[in-house]
Amino acid sequence: MERRIHAMAATRPLDRTHAATLFADVSARPKERLLVGIAGAGGSGKTALLDRLEETYRASGIPVSRDHGHVDPAGRAAPSAVLVDDAHRLGETDLGRLHSLVEGHHIDLVIAYRSSPLTPALDKLVRALERHRPQVLLDPLDRGDVEARIAAVTGAPVPAALVADVLETTGGMAWLVARTLAAVRREGNAVLLDPHGMDGVAQHLGRDLQRVDPGLRQVLLSLAAGFDSAEVEPPWPDFAGHTIDELVDEARTAGLLLPDGRLIPLVRQALISTMPRFRLRSLQRTLVDGYVATGCALDGVARDLARSGVRDIRVARTLEQAGDDALGADPARALKLYDEAKAAGADGLRLAARRAQAALADGDLEGAGRTVDGLLALEDPPDAERAANAAAAVWSRRGLLNRGADVYRWLGPARAGESSPLAAVALIGVGDLAGARTMLGAAAPPGSPTLPSVASALMGQGSLDAVEGRSHEALSALVRASDTLTAAGVHAPLPEQPAVLAALVAFHCGKPGTAESILAAALAGGQGGAAVRPRLLLLQAWSQMLLDRPERARAHIAEATRDEHLVTPRDKLFLHALSVGLARRTDDLPALVHAWRQARDYQMHVVADLYCLLPLGELAVAGARLRDGALLQPQLEEAWAVLGRLGDPPLWSLPLHWYSVQAALLAERPQDLAPHAAALVRAAAQDGPVSRLASRLATAGKVWVAVLAGEADVAAVVSAANGLASAGLAWDGARLAGHAAARVDDRRDMNRLLSCARELRRGVRPAAGGSPEASGPPTWPETPAAATPANTAPSEGVLSPRERDVARLVLQGKTYREIGETMFISPRTAEHHIARIRSRLGAATRTELLDRLRLVLDTEGSDAGTNDGGDAEAGSR
């Protein structure tokens, strides 16, 4: 029977080190005899190794025999080598004959045997062989062995996950790996383990296992039912003098058990697939009864019982509790446990809110939404508070915070309990300040101050402080909330993460550096888990954009979008606004147009709320620059309505007023500018830290209007630009100084303004397409490039790095003035650069210049180089 079970093991290739060493010794035929024992469990490849050794002997012309019983060492036809399989089955007489071969003759002897238990006669023979050579122990296959065998069958690279799956299923036993290869198939370049094929493998194996001895089969069936733990005595009868330990040892040496005594998963599957249902369920009920009677927990066997189809409320409750324990830190595991609990008989409605929470934390927004939606349709759903939190979080991530607020209104203050502060966050986000205060006022008396409950309370208080004008208190409370939730390490359903709220308050206070540090700490601590990580990264990218570090911003964006299914609709609004903002700040017009088109179409998928004012403001400026902002107006009107319902709180409204000022300037609509300028002036007249930000923005707006009117006061411009930089808007300040420099006549004034612009953007220089890249120390020259002596020019046809930057802007069709504004040089200096480039390249006409620039810069056919009607030679416009 065991020959039948293990037959396929002989088909595997043998390339392990010990086998290769034996083959080499036989081929070399050294003077020393080859006397060695080969030990291993059933199906570990002992027979295959002997077969290969026999082939090697015969290929070397050496007589070899597999029949030790007819070997006459004194005869003329005596073989030079004897190979013996299954030596553990031999009696004392045969083993004694083999022992005499070791002691008295010049014959090679290789025996293969099960590693345990050894009879006294076999142990004596093994010890005699070990005096000549250590035994060869055939251990289970490792990853490299399994990968090699799959590759030999498929002829294709093998995925690491497939190798791990086969190892887990087979325990690395060679005979089971050989059988599993029948279920491996190749589809194109992919190598897969066919589930239907594995079912067939299990069925065939199960039929083979039906023929083992009754005592051994009873042991195997009991282990398959779950009796592989030391907690409960299995119902094993006494079989003809065989003890339980003897039967377990036999199963282990037959290659059916793992070293710790558990069944190999494929063997378990095979036994269950062929065991009568009534027999299996009877054994499993006995197992559960035994655990309960002895007071042992079912944790170790509950999952296997549920997976095999057991429906028992005791098993279900065990799995439910295990899911609760895993819910906070390992939502993927919790979701599986809840599903298994439901399969074992747990109430699906009682589990629904927890399953939704786990799915949400695991990044399955759609699954969480479907689960909680059915639950909230009930008149009196169980676990209503948790269900409301999950539903509100789903709506928020969809970009529909207003619906999340509706969920909390439906829940009501009486049922909100410890979730009242979270309800307040959602209600404040949609402008319902009265509702938020009601929720906070009706909050349940605080119980034990757990980390999540403390974080929740701080979030509610910080959100209220932010709209009531207490910006310092708001930021402090939200930072503490973020630290506390990170320390808790739980993935709770929230309308917004505390790190995001804290970062948004910092942004609105003009402190992008503070926001960066808050977000960095949250990311390092894993706040919210993998499902929340993209949002934190996108906010981190926003801080880098404001700090004028575009390459770092793009790196954060790339990391955030690596797993696209985790980027929620709410996050995509920030993602599109970042693309627009980076293109605008790097003067990349083609990229700006492309990003704007995507953002313009996408913004209809979300509803404006308090926590998305920054991306809406950025999009408003881009729309004004491209004369295409009409589609954004409904969103902006809703944003202003939210602020209006909150009493136009300065902390939240100032940045949007500033964005609106810029949009009005770009659109050349002075009538749109007035209300926002007035709002900035009013806010500047108030007391408090936000008034300082308002004062800087109001002053900058006034100076910018004067600059556009041709009345650039150099001292006022420099002061306003530095004020913007101190408010976290260094790029805006540099742009203001650059615009002013292009509009003054005095060379000293122009140099002073350009120096101010360079200082505000130190560490950044234009790259391809005018895009700034981080470059460490300042690279801008302190004097215009026109002062470079002619005799230091590079050889003909070679451009300096500075001239290459100018050349790229020429190919984009920029005028002298636009080149000067982009690079913070004067239009006259830009003209001088272009004249030198023409001279170096030997271009007599405009067309020749463009063609040669394309060749030099390797930009042939680029969109940027197709604007023949607007190149820098057209002069300043």
From TrEMBL:
Q: Which SUPFAM superfamilies match?
A: C-terminal effector domain of the bipartite response regulators, P-loop containing nucleoside triphosphate hydrolases
Gene3D superfamilies xref list: P-loop containing nucleotide triphosphate hydrolases, Winged helix-like DNA-binding domain superfamily/Winged helix DNA-binding domain
What the entry lists under Pfam families is as follows:
GerE
Locate the compositionally biased regions of type Low complexity. 782-794
Q: Is Electron transport set as a keyword in this record?
A: no
Cross-referenced PROSITE patterns, in alphabetical order? HTH_LUXR_2
Q: Cite the HTH luxR-type domain residue spans from the record.
A: 792-857
Instruction: Give the protein name, as stated in the record.
Output: Helix-turn-helix transcriptional regulator
Q: Which species is the source of this protein?
A: Arthrobacter ginkgonis
